[in-house]
Design brief:
Elements lengths: L3 H16 L13 E2 L25 E8 H5 L9 H4 L5 E2 L1 E9 L16 H5 L8 H10 L8 H13 L6 H4 L7 H11 L8 E5 L5 E9 L9 H4 L14
Antiparallel strand pairs: 1-3, 2-4, 2-6, 5-6
Length: about 240
Amino acid sequence: MTTPSTRRSLFRTLVACGSLGFTCLAAPAVAQAYQCRLPGAVEIPQIRPDAPTRRLPVTGYTLALGWSPEFCKGREMRAADARQCSGRAGRFGLMVHGLWPESGRTWPQWCGSRRQLQARDLRANMCLSPSARLLARQWAKHGSCMTRRPATYFKVTRILWNGLRIPDFDRISREDDLTAGTIRTRFVDANPGWPREAIGVKLNSRGWLQELRLCYDKRFMPNACDRRRLGAQDGAQAKIWRGL
């Protein structure tokens, strides 16, 4: 069992590695956000729990990376999704949906925190997760079960993201006979040493790429996903929408 004090120690170690510029995980990546501009000001959304609190021992983590063109299909004119989908703030490819704690067959959630979310915590990350509401919800639902400070949660998320090399999904989308296994292979090609079984591929009901779910153990090392997070099997036919 990972105790709260142990989790805080692991977070401090990971944050220290990133802030000191050490190569804790891998070389920095080029984020898939084209001409992204940070907003001048950010309002803090009001987030209310929509499910019961679950305070559980943390056994691992999931870094969920959403494929923005698929999310934005049909949402280009919606005011609530304007930053991510209208194109006025930039064009987004793979973006961070959230960093989630895991606990066996379920997950901790809505743990609460005495620390107030600050506008600067949101603004600094809006080229990585282009929605203030998404960022605020991820902290309230998931981050509050991992660390006491919102800034620490977002910093650890950035360190994990910057430890990845993101494949060219535009090029991958044009491959013949594309499968979920191809997507895993291209991720491993870009990140040598990543185990294929630590890469979850979520396809929607029509077979389009919706999300990657990268699985870590409780020390933030890549670890095999369980069936729930692994998603599509290697042989599943896949498509990737390019937003055209």
